[in-house]
Amino acid sequence: xxxxxxxxxxxxxxxxxxxxxxxxxAARGVASTSIRDVxxxxxxxxxxxxxxxxxKARLREAVDExxxxxxxxxxxxxxxxSEGDEAWPGLGDATTAWVRDNALALRYLARAMIDGDPAAAxxxxxxxxxxxxxxxxxxxxxxxxxxxxxxxxxAIHAAVFNLASVLLEPAISRQLPxxxxxxxxxxxxNVATVxxxxxxxxxxxxx
Length: 207
Description:
Keywords: DNA-binding. The chain has helices at about 15-30, 35-40, 45-55, 55-80, 85-100, 105-115, 120-140, 150-165, 170-175, 185-200. By secondary structure, it is mainly α. The chain has a domain at about 65-205: Tetracycline Repressor, domain 2. The protein is elongated. The chain is about 70% helix and about 0% strand. The chain has 10 helices and no strands.
């Protein structure tokens, strides 16, 4: 799985600890990841983790806040790609790049929802909201969507497809000639997903 796209040496101690927690939570779940685990992965002492975050609950909150911030940035970028003649491929390119760079965040979110964690609902709500406001709404304003298309389910499907693709990556990779995260397979996923949405949602003249 791709790692968090930043060099560890460039990060503050706070960010290194938070990112180590994200990796642990994504791989093993929150309950199975201890402060000692996070400290070892970040290359610091457990006491330094507690100095910055106090408790594992606060560390978890910091991870959640980081993920919501990343989603907000993605929402703004997606809105910019939802205009013009190249809206559909532009949206696909932006989403594929974001999933590639933030696979750990999505896996963590998916695991937390499976574990029944109420806090994970905020992340899912954010994904659905991004699909509604930054993807579907601009296309709708441009008249690019079929009037009868179900906007609510289109937004939900977008969130579910992205989460499921990351969570089920090992199984998906077994069905492909190369692992899912290789450039060629990500490109295939991008093209196939854009075709799926475009054929299902776009007006015939835009499909």
